[in-house]
Amino acid sequence: MSKQLEVLDAACCEGLTSAPLDAGSAAELATVFKALGDPVRLRLLSMIASRQGGEVCVCEMTPAFELSQPTISHHLKLLRQAGLIDCERRGTWVYYWVLPAALDRLAGFLRTPQATA
């Protein structure tokens, strides 16, 4: 069973300005923002999201950081648990990709209505 959080369902993401969040939705979204609140995790997410072909091997990300492979794996695990990325083991390597729907829902939550002039 996956440990990914189902934090970005339609009920929580009507938009920040549409209605106040209830306590449960706020706690779930805080998990996502906490995952994004680390510079290493932001860089990892960016590396994965910007990758041509949509996925990247952990072996290609590790050299970009002055961190050990287990530390990189820990950061990737937190992004996965927040529901922002997913992965698949292929032989000895793990490949990661972004979950576009999760990012779209998060962006939708943060979007404010356009002012009409």
From TrEMBL:
It comes from the Bacteria. Keywords: DNA-binding, Transcription, Transcription regulation. GO terms for molecular function: DNA binding; DNA-binding transcription factor activity. It holds the Pfam family HTH_5. Residues 21-117 form the HTH arsR-type domain. This is Metalloregulator ArsR/SmtB family transcription factor. It comes from Amycolatopsis pithecellobii.
